[in-house]
């Protein structure tokens, strides 16, 4: 299972509450707990196993907060990610 400090590779699709897809990718690599990604990902992917799938619902405080992320993520946005852990 994925633990802090592990490098993971993810397939993902990110959408807003209205279903608008703001980002998607395959084999996106990062290290859990290194603040390479939003906090909602660091927390939501912990414990996943290779091949595992999850839907992460990330509140603004664990995402991009009051600033958002231009141009696609407005301030105070709740983010939805369908993620698959490809590799640990």
Automatic annotation (TrEMBL):
Q: What reactions does this protein catalyze?
A: [protein]-peptidylproline (omega=180) = [protein]-peptidylproline (omega=0)
Mind telling me which InterPro entries this protein's record contains? FKBP2/11, PPIase_dom_sf, PPIase_FKBP_dom
What keywords sit in the KW lines?
Isomerase, Rotamase
Question: Is-annotated flag, keyword Repeat?
Answer: no
GO MF annotation list: peptidyl-prolyl cis-trans isomerase activity
**An example Gene Ontology CC term for this record:** endoplasmic reticulum
- Is Isomerase one of the keywords? yes
Q: What residue stretches are annotated with the PPIase FKBP-type domain? A: 5-88
Q: Name one Pfam family in it.
A: FKBP_C
Q: Report the EC number(s), separated by commas if there are several.
A: 5.2.1.8
Q: Which PANTHER family match?
A: PEPTIDYLPROLYL ISOMERASE
Name assigned to this protein: peptidylprolyl isomerase
Annotated organism of origin: Aureococcus anophagefferens
Lineage runs: Eukaryota, Sar, Stramenopiles, Ochrophyta, Pelagophyceae
């Amino acid at each position: 299972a994925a633990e802090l400090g592990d490098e993971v590779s993810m397939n993902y699709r990110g959408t807003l509450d209205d279903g608008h897809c703001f980002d998607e990718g395959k084999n996106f690599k990062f290290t859990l707990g290194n603040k390479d990604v939003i906090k909602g990902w660091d927390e939501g992917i912990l414990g996943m196993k290779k091949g595992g799938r999850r839907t992460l619902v990330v509140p603004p405080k664990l995402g991009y907060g009051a600033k958002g992320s231009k141009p696609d993520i407005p301030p105070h946005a709740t983010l939805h990610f369908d993620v698959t852990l490809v590799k640990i």
